[in-house]
Every structure is written in structure tokens, then in C-alpha cells.
Amino acid sequence: MISNLHYISQGETPEEHLENIRRMCAAGADWVQLRLKNEPFETVLETAKAAKDICDAFQVKLIINDFPEVAKKVNADGVHLGKQDSCPLEARKLLGPDKIIGGTANTLEDCESLCEKQVDYIGLGPLRITTTKKNPSPVLGAKSYRKLLSSLSAGGKSVPVIAIGGITPSDIPALAESGVHGVAISRWLTVHPQPEMIFQGIQQHFLEKQL
Q: Which residue range(s) make up the domain with 129?
């Protein structure tokens, strides 16, 4: 089951990532993506081991960004692959049929390619420019999500789509109306003094749309 709300970890150091992951798990997260950039493999691996312990304690799914090998070593629930990362088909061979594999997309062609590679979900965006990426793809608006999802559906594709990129709670109504399965949020959740309120509100919003 793909969650409606993905927390993408954030922090200046691996320790801050872990601190924020623990805080989000305690606040009600059910899906966490460890996203460490510009760190050596061993640092990512050790941080992932600690993140797995935290997520297991709270019964939260852990997804590793960019590193299928790390996901396998720590027995994470899956991996999320950017457009320049490993091929989802190769990750599937490494991780097996039971792990979750997600991929990043910016265009209809990206989405169709990921569907052909049998990903479990697509992270589509960015909705707007975000500081978490140095070289973001062109931004999409809520109308673009609706158009892309309609085209995917018309082509017989039914992979859950998660909106990504600079999303805040004020964006949720329009995104939910567009038909996306859920959203991924990083900075807004990290800096919010009461993230539990955000988790409850967003998850309830998408639940109501699916009834």
C-alpha cells in the first residue's frame, strides 16, 4: 500500500536527518524516505541502519533515496530512484518482487517509461521550485497534474502518482482534486512546530477523496 503522505528527510547532517525522522515518526508518519545527498556510501549505509531501527520501532515504512544497495543491506521497504539514478528494472532484480520501487518523473513520457519499468509509484513534479534540489526540473501546476493523470489513465496506466516539490498544505485541495494519490513533503513538515496536525489533516483529506 502506497501512503498518501511521504515525508522526505531533511537536515544539515546525517544526525539531523535521523532526529527529524524520529520526530516525524512520533508525529504520525507512516512513510519516510531517507534522502541523503553528497554523502559517501558508508555514511548513507550507517545512517540508513539507524533510520531503519527508528522506523521499525514506530512501524513506519522506510524508503531509501538513490541507493538500491543500501536498501538491500538494511532491509528497507524499498527505494526511490531519481531520473539520473539506477534503472528500476535493475533495482527490482537486486531487491526482489516484494520491495517497493518508486521513480521520479517530470513529463508524461517519463511517467510512461516508469510504468513500462513496473515501478510501484511515481513521484511527479516539481509543483514549484524547491530548495531541496540544486537542479530541479521544470515546474508543474495542479492543472498539469490533472492533464498528465488523464493521459496516463487514457493509456491504460494506473500507477499511484505522488506530487512532489515545494508542496505546502495549502496546495493539498487542488492536488487532491487533480487525482494524485498523495503528496511528498520535506521542508514544510520539518520546520512545522506541530507536524502531527499536518499528518492528520492531509491523510484525512486524501481518505475522503478516495471514498
A: 5-210
